[in-house]
Predict the 3D structure of the following.
Amino acid sequence: MKKLIGFCAVLATLWFVGLTQGVAQAQKEQRSAGHVPSHGPPPARQPRVAPAQPHGYADRNGHPEAPHVHPNNKWIGHDTGRNDARFHLDHPWEHGRFDGGFGRGHVFRVEGGGRERFWFGGYYFSVSPSDYPFCDGWFRDRDEIVIYEDPDHDGWYLAYNVRLGTYVHVMYLGR
């Protein structure tokens, strides 16, 4: 009888630990996965110094170490301002401007590419080299992407990955 009670106690403990881990994982996924921001970031007010390395984006426990968006539409990592040398272009929009639609009502499925570039629906984009590490986890054949205009960096757009809740700077290459 003692063995049966001990076995039931161990089983109940394992069940409870699994349940709490499942709830924590669900809360983590709810923070970003599937959320599509209603609008892009506002222009930066007081620019901060651009990071020399991709560090400092995980603003809370469980948040990604990449530029991301909170469910309240706060864009984390988009506060370096207009003078961020990483995003300076001598010829902004040299391939034209993206006209496929912006924001929540325009979700596109990535059809191919690599970390340097990707495409969907005949639209082609290149990723800023400084943002390569932030798109390494993308599924190039199925991730859903939403494009936003970048209010601070002429010639750049922001490609938001719905599954990951993160974004990268991209340049439109045309159709």
Q: What stands out?
A: DSSP finds one helix and nine strands in the chain. Helices lie at 2-32. The chain has a mean pLDDT of 84.
